[in-house]
Design goal:
The chain is of the alpha+beta class and about 290 residues long. Helix content is about 25%, strand content about 30%.
Length: about 290
């Protein structure tokens, strides 16, 4: 059984690990199962074995070199691949060969990642009060949305994202007009555990105990199917194991017209980045 905590920690620290690779390019051969394919960004999300000297076994996305043809690769395929890490810490797959296609799904599970300017999926969510809402309910407002789950044990993941949102909430609240034109939404990736009562208990710790702020910052949970739609749209990877969830990070800025403006796929952004981006959207309206 893979150690989930190690997998999450290594995923979070991947950039720093890669930067210490040395002065010359290195390559590592490994075997993996294809979880999904993102054609628009020429990326494979794979569940790979332990790669000695590079990465513990985990599920994560890998960019693929432009000259590698992925037309014959589908979700469910078993592959042999090579990852090359250059002196700057950038990495990509340079070789991908399908070794077993017998597990291939009847339909290709190809992630449809959204690009800026595209309309977001109008999925239904349930908030901390048990009230159903749709993302389209926020039309006319600038929305900052992220993915968390309440049991997340890694301080650099969900707790950090919620703390960043708390800082954004505090800054926006300084201007009542700005506050009224914006909204924050946290979406749980743990539908089995994060019920509305659990979310209502979780939220106040980040709202400075003021539950009235739930009107501006909603803590929500989707159905598993709707979660899958959002994950596909925003390139979110998640996998349950040992009663915890290994996951990537995705925070998105949605314009008043319901279209994607910007996204952050790590947690190294700061609150002022998000507030500035939200204000830029508002200023463009005027």
């Amino acid at each position: 059984m893979r150690n989930l905590a190690v997998r999450i920690f290594l995923f979070a620290c991947l950039f720093f690990a890669l930067c210490s690779c040395g002065k010359s390019d290195r390559h590592y051969d490994f075997k993996a199962r294809v979880v999904s394919k993102v054609s628009e960004t020429h990326t494979l999300v794979v569940d790979h074995e332990n790669i000695p000297g590079f990465m513990a076994a985990m599920t994560m996305p890998y960019p693929v070199a432009a000259n590698v043809d992925l037309s014959g690769v589908e979700a469910g395929d078993r592959i042999a691949a090579r990852v090359v890490v250059n002196k700057d810490g950038d990495y990509e797959l340079t070789k991908v060969a399908v070794t077993d296609s017998s597990h291939r799904q009847k339909e290709v599970n190809e992630t449809r990642q959204l690009f800026p300017g595209e309309e977001i999926p109008d999925v239904e969510l349930v908030n901390q009060d048990g009230k159903k809402l749709r993302l389209s309910d926020s039309r006319g407002k600038t929305v900052l949305l992220t993915f968390i789950y309440t049991r997340c044990p890694m301080p650099t993941f969900c707790p950090r994202l919620s703390s960043l949102f708390a800082a954004v909430e505090k800054e926006l609240a300084k201007d009542p007009k700005e506050y009224a034109r914006t909204r924050l939404i946290s979406v749980s990736i743990d539908p089995k555990f994060d019920s509305p009562p659990v979310l209502r208990k979780y939220g106040p710790a980040y709202l400075n105990g003021d539950e009235k702020k739930f009107e501006h910052w909603s803590f929500t949970v989707p159905t598993p199917e709707n979660l899958k739609k959002l994950a596909q749209a925003f390139a979110l990877v998640y996998e349950e194991e040992d009663n915890q969830i290994a996951h990537s990070m995705s925070t998105v800025l949605i314009g008043p017209d319901g279209r994607l403006i910007k996204e952050w796929n790590v947690s190294d952004w700061i609150a002022t980045d998000a507030v500035a981006a939200m204000r830029q959207v508002e200023n463009a309206k005027n």
